[in-house]
From TrEMBL, chain A:
Pfam families named among the record's database cross-references: BPD_transp_2
GO CC annotations on file: plasma membrane
Membrane topology: Multi-pass membrane protein
Bilayer-crossing regions: 15-34, 40-59, 66-85, 91-111, 118-136, 172-191, 221-241, 253-281, 293-309
Name of the protein: Branched-chain amino acid ABC transporter permease
Keyword Chaperone listed: no
Compartment annotation: Cell membrane
GO MF term (any one): branched-chain amino acid transmembrane transporter activity
From TrEMBL, chain B:
GO cellular component: plasma membrane
CDD domains: ABC_Mj1267_LivG_branched
InterPro entries hit by this protein: AAA+_ATPase, ABC_AA/LPS_Transport, ABC_transporter-like_ATP-bd, ABC_transporter-like_CS, BCA_ABC_TP_C, P-loop_NTPase
Species whose genome carries this gene: Aliirhizobium smilacinae
Domain of life: Bacteria
Protein name stated in the entry: ABC transporter ATP-binding protein
Single GO MF descriptor: ATP binding
Keywords, ordered alphabetically: ATP-binding, Nucleotide-binding, Transport
Xref: Gene3D superfamilies: P-loop containing nucleotide triphosphate hydrolases (3.40.50.300)
Entry similarity comment: Belongs to the ABC transporter superfamily.
Residue ranges annotated for the ABC transporter domain, each copy included: 8-257
UniProtKB/TrEMBL annotation, chain C:
Subcellular location(s) of the protein: Cell membrane
Protein topology in the membrane: Multi-pass membrane protein
The keyword Acyltransferase is assigned to this record: no
Transmembrane segments: 12-36, 66-85, 97-122, 142-161, 188-208, 242-261
Organism: Aliirhizobium smilacinae
Name of the protein this chain belongs to: Branched-chain amino acid ABC transporter permease
GO biological process, any: amino acid transport
Keywords: Amino-acid transport, Cell membrane, Membrane, Transmembrane, Transmembrane helix, Transport
Record family assignment: Belongs to the binding-protein-dependent transport system permease family. LivHM subfamily.
Record-linked CDD domains: TM_PBP1_LivH_like
Pfam families found in the cross-reference section: BPD_transp_2
InterPro entries to which the protein is assigned, alphabetical: ABC_transp_permease, BCAA_transport_permease
GO MF annotation terms: transmembrane transporter activity
Cellular component aspect of the GO annotation: plasma membrane
Amino acid sequence: MSLTDTAPQARRRDLRIPLAAILVVAALAAPFIGTRYVTHSLIIALIFMLPAHGLNLLVGYTGLLSLAQAAFFGIGAYTAGLLAVHYDTPFYVNLLAAGLVSGLLALPLGIPALRLRATSFVMCTLGFVIIGQAIAKNWISVTRGDMGLSGIPKPYFELGPLSFTVTGTTSFYYLALAVAALGTLAAWAIVRSPAGRNMVAIRENETLAESLGVPTWRYKLIVFMISAAFAGVGGSLYAHYLTVVSPLTFQMYYSTTMLIIVLGGGAGMISGTVFGSLLFVGLTEALRVAPEVRMIAYGFCLLVLVFWFKKGFAPLINRFWNAIGGSK
Amino acid sequence: MNAHLPILEIKNLSKSYGAVKAVNDVSMHINRGEIAGLIGPNGSGKSTFFDCSTGLARPDTGKVVLDGQDITGWSLNRIAREGRMLRSFQKTVTFKALDVEENLIIAGQMFTFPTLASTFGLGKLSRSRIAALRERARELIKMAGLWDVRHQPAGNLSGGQQKLIQFASMLMPEPKLILLDEPMAGINPKIIERVVDTIQYANKSLGVSFLVIEHNIDVVTSICQRVVVLDQGAKLVEGLPHDIIQDQRVREAYLGG
Amino acid sequence: MFSTLLEQVVNGIVTGSVYAIVAVGMTMIFGVLRAINFAHGEYYMLGTFGAWFATDYLGLSYEASIVVGVLSTVVVAYVVGQLVMRRMVGAPAESGVLATLGVALILQNTVIFVFGGGYKFFSGGYIEPVSILGFTLAEQRIIILVVCLLVFVGLELMVTYSRLGMAMRAVSQNVECCGVVGIDVPQVVLRTFVLGAALAALSGVLTAPVNVSVYGGMGELITFKTLPIIIMGGLGNVRGTFVAAMILGIAESLVATYIGLQYRDTVGFATLILMLMWRPHGLFSTQARF
């Protein structure tokens, strides 16, 4: 499981670079290949990829099972929505603000929550979602309650003399693709850094990590904040894409969806989360599965992942990647 | 930092769990460059004493002074990181899913990266630091005789090999002092020899001081220069290993007299 | 002023009784399995739906619908127990969370898929008001109070004297030893789970005439309300659960009257979070299980 070693010599041809190139081209050409609905499905998958990356850092790398992701997703969505509606700020400001607000709010929420163990921590994080929804419903002067925020403008940019608005589905796709790609890169950078190794150490054995000088408490708090920031960024995209935000953005079902992406794709693996978003969100959206049926399917996915398919698609992705990388 | 001062000094340490006085007013010290032993029957308070000295538990009263610095109340990770005093565990030994090399690199990381923020870096400096750690890890892996299995997940190796990994891990940060909690428990005699060799190598060549809890009396007499005996939470006697094993009070304590 | 307060307290006790019957099953399951059942409220929903189906489609009486509601839930719980809950013995806490979340999704959405997501009207039950000691209460609420007391007395007796009760206590004390002395742990888990689900269903059927509306998402709300109760009661502690349920019931009723109806449903989780911060092991001992 070395993180850096590569095969000493390849006798067979290494197909990884060509494959990566094909994937990049496919991602760029997608709106012209599929229908508009397919593009829409991909956008939804890309939006969910961001909170899922955050959750993967928390669950997959640091080993903390959290259901709070939907709460931070909702906070991000409302932050971006409120800024856009009231102050007419450009998209990137809303996006950064959403990430920042979610990430910073995770600090006071994380301090008490992370003192709890296993199931208690899970329940506390679930509580954040429920209380978040209650606040969104009842703080009517700000959130407009059940009516939600509507009329959130399409993303617009103001870069010096150049300013433009992202209107169509295709252009929004490229925006979401860019943000998701940056998010993926950021997540990758975090797990490849020495801090990523410390996170894995905490997951594997917290006391041992602690005894080797790793400040586990601070790492857990930082990762909790980073994961919330990822969710917030995803929430801002969501708000701008749908142009409405309602208290239903805070729902358990979203947290569950993000968990399925992470666990199904393969926890503790960046490519697993990318794959999981496309498979579990993109595909179900593209197939126009009815919401109830999708949730039933998610329920079965969870059971299968817990009892039979514990590592998700991670081993398959690894094997495939090694196979096309040429034999040793 | 006077060379003649003890590396670790523990003064009047007490710890109670409810009505049970697990450790009662124990004082001891470890000299620079020494291998000291801590023995005593089961339930004599050795482990509690260890936990309180290393920050895993908080002592009720007493003082822990490491290399002239009062570290009472510091957390386990801070004592390790800033004090360079490391400890082993009886059961918790390795990061099982990670390979041997990664295990050692993790052990060294917190000592080469000055701040928490710097651990998130991926730049050239960060890479060169990790490369240096890998270099050192490989040396220690060779020394511990684990070269052939260095890319295997630690969890796949035998209990004895995992103890050696733990041992090598603790040497990564160039520690001042290592506290070992029953390092020989549950490993076969062949590995015991290797662990003994490693302790002596670390002591002589790297200048690491040791405090060892151990039940294997042969090991204690062969490596320790001085032994402290605990019984029922209090210090019973302290002296040279040979005197200790002949001490009547020690025998009675072990026989439950 | 004072009479309103008293009336709200009585209402709170009735609500508390509903929660208590659901929560006691959940806490017993925790006792034997060391896992929180996030799907527990769904059995409450299933019981209600079974009874609604019996009265609305089959034209049965309310009394018969109680039987149909509880029995159909028992069948579902037996299947879930065999396929899922038994596997959770000895599994890490996280697996239990994920598996029961999965079960909740499946049960809830299957019902929505079959019967539609809208609100349904429950028409059975005894809703005539009666006057006792100056209070006016619907008959159904009195039935709920009586059944709740009977359930708790019955459980106390069962846990103390019956074979299953003793096995449950044994499993909750020490799982490893049970294997040694020949107690079939998965079997005890299965029976406890089916019993807990049946109680949740009973609670649902009894409440349906008071709540009037029946819908697929109702179980989730009940799960979220019983979670704080079982934590507050000291996980696995039956008597503590009873007291905690009453406290939450009364607190909700007072909050709804004096602060605002819209805050009622957050009382539980706000309490839960404060609880977890302040006393993670509940107000009552977790040692005094059952």
